[in-house]
Write a structure and sequence with these properties.
The complex is a heterodimer of chains A (159) and B (124). Chain A is built from three helices and eight strands, in the order ββααββββββα. By secondary structure, chain A is an alpha+beta fold. Chain A starts with a strand and ends with a helix. Chain B has a two-stranded antiparallel sheet. The longest helix of chain B has 30 residues. The radius of gyration of chain B is 24 Å and the shape is elongated. The chains are: A alpha+beta (159), B mainly alpha (124). Chains A and B meet through strand 1, strand 2, helix 1, strand 8 and helix 3 of A and helix 2, helix 3 and helix 6 of B.
Chain lengths: 159, 124
């Protein structure tokens, strides 16, 4: 049904996806812009997403909540550009219960471009860390986590 | 030995080392390449001595090691930092592969709501 190439660039921390769908461009646009369809794929089956708002306008926000068996994740898209039915750009952030960004969590920028191709639609997707600082957060968080893990192991040994 | 290394002072040193944005940036550069101290010094609007000091803080915290090669001192970070960055990117990739699979399934599903009765491009 779809031919997908996924290319992960470890130097620039960018993921590029090309997917071809046997579906008209409007149907592919709808899976991004219709909340009923969006929430059928955004969250994993274990943590399904519910979109509370979906304002696809520049400066608009989409807020969602992903509910899993033992955790709740809140997030928001900050929409930077939109041109239905061909392009959408937003930054995906983690938010607290009041909808405020969580500063120490990295932000991810997502750019979607749809083009008609034969009788179907090609979707090009770029997913990357919003800034160099977000990359730093990731590396520092990784180190801090491994440190906590190590300290935990040491505590276990000393107990 | 390992137990002895992780005293409260060492842990404090690690968090102190990570608290400074220049040192986090040095760490990031060392996670990607293996720059010399002088090359690092050229990247920041501060003196060679100031950059060397930052490197020394990172080194004391065990986050980087220095290795002499010829006349240069090369700085490299703990490989764990790189693998953490890779791991996070791999996780992100897995997240998006899952999303693409579900999106494909949704688009292949012909029993979609009624507004798909006359899909553009499928009626010829």
């Amino acid at each position: 049904m779809s031919i997908t190439s996924v290319n992960t660039d470890y130097d620039n921390l960018t993921i590029t996806v090309i997917a071809d769908f046997d579906a008209a461009i409007k149907r592919v646009w709808d899976v991004w812009s219709d909340p009923r369809k969006l929430q059928r794929w955004w969250g994993p089956p274990t943590d399904p997403a519910t979109f509370q708002t979906l304002e696809l306008t520049p400066g608009g926000q989409a807020t969602y909540i992903m509910t899993g068996p033992d955790r709740v994740t809140r997030g928001a898209w900050q929409v930077t550009a939109v041109d239905p039915p061909t392009s959408l750009e937003f930054t995906d952030i983690f938010t607290d219960t009041d909808g405020r960004p969580i500063a120490h969590m990295p932000a991810i920028t997502v750019s979607v471009r749809l083009t008609e191709r034969d009788r179907g639609t090609r979707m090009q997707l770029h997913v990357k860390f919003a800034s160099r600082e977000d990359m730093d957060k990731l590396i520092s968080t990784g180190i801090a986590e491994s440190l906590r893990h190590t300290v935990g192991q040491i505590d276990g040994l000393l107990a | 030995m390992v137990v002895g290394e992780l005293t409260g002072d060492v842990v404090d040193g690690l968090f102190h080392a990570l608290a400074d944005p220049t040192r986090r940036d040095i760490l990031r550069r060392c996670a990607i390449g293996e720059p010399s101290v002088s090359r690092l010094a050229r990247a920041y609007p501060m003196s060679f001595a100031a950059v060397q000091k930052h490197v020394a803080v990172l080194e004391r915290a065990g986050l980087v090691t220095k290795q002499r090669r010829g006349r240069e001192q090369l700085v490299r970070t703990d490989a764990g930092a790189v693998s953490h960055a890779r791991q996070a990117l791999d996780d992100l990739e897995a997240t998006w592969r899952g999303r693409l699979d579900r999106m494909s399934a949704l688009l292949a599903d012909s029993t979609e709501p009624a507004d798909e009765d006359l899909p553009i491009g499928e009626t010829g």
